[in-house]
Design a protein that fits this description.
The protein is α+β, with helices and mostly antiparallel strands. It is 39% helix and 20% strand. It has a 4-stranded antiparallel β-sheet with strand order 2-3-1-4. The structure holds ribavirin triphosphate (RTP) and magnesium ion (MG). Homotetramer.
Amino acid sequence: MALERTLSIIKPDATRRNLTGAINDRFEKAGLRIVAQKRIQLTRAQAEAFYGVHKERPFFGGLCDFMTSGPVVVQVLEGEGAVAKNREVMGATDPAKADAGTIRKDFAENIEANSVHGSDSAENAAIEIAFFFAQTEIVG
Ligand code: RTP
Ligand code: MG
């Protein structure tokens, strides 16, 4: 499997509860290397643009409210099959349905405040990484 990169976001419910280090520990123990990272406050426009694919969904407004409710940590994770590996470590969107030992099972509050985002394909990963990072900010 090829070395891949994926975009991860530690969401406001997790930064609020000081879980950044605990979540990063899960990534690193799974063999994902954090090759870029910054803590930022998303603007409403950034949240709406980032989640533009969901704009017709009923949860879109609430999701943008939540994602701008506090700081997030955006990061680039690198590893063999990083996109799928990260989704595996994150667990299902709804923590009630997530497997034991996953980040969402152990830390998420509910289906919306679910602690982490991870790109869902290599193609979207490239788009999402470019949304937040210049090439010079990523050091593999
Ligand atoms: P993500 O994009 O954040 O990695 O999560 P995902 O692929 O597992 O879930 P997705 O379907 O892309 O949904 C994006 C985010 O929207 C919120 N959501 N709320 N209230 C709801 O029913 C609902 N469904 C989704 C979650 O924060 C989800 O991660
Ligand atoms: Mg998604």
